[in-house]
Amino acid sequence: MNSEERSSAAGTGPRARASAWGILVGPAFLGLAAWLHLGNPPAEIPRQEPMRVDTRRLTTEPRRKPSELHDGRPLIFVNSFLRHCSECHNFPLSEVQIRNRQQHGHIVLEHGINDACHNCHDLSNMDQLILRGGRSIPYADVPELCRTCHGPTFQDWQRGIHGRVNGYWDATRGEQHHLRCVECHDPHRPRHPAMDPLVPLPGPNTLRMGDPRWRAGESHEGPEEDPLRRVTVQSREEDR
Amino acid sequence: MSAQESGRDGVTRRSFLRGGLGAAGGLAAVAAAVSPLRELDTGDLTLERLLQKHYKEMTPEDKERVLERIRNEVQQRFEVRPELRDLPPLPGVEFAYALNLGRCIGCRRCVHACVRENNQSRDPEIQYIRVLELPRGSVDVERSEHHYDHLRVPSPDHYYMPVQCHQCENPPCVKVCPVEATWKEPDGVIVIDYDWCIGCRYCAAACPYFARRFNYAEPSVPKEELNPDMNYLSNRPRRKGVMEKCHFCLQRTRAGRMPACLEVCPVGARNFGNLLDPESQVAQILKTKQIFVLKQDAATLPRFFYYFDQDM
Question: What's the complex ipTM?
Answer without folding.
Answer: 0.78
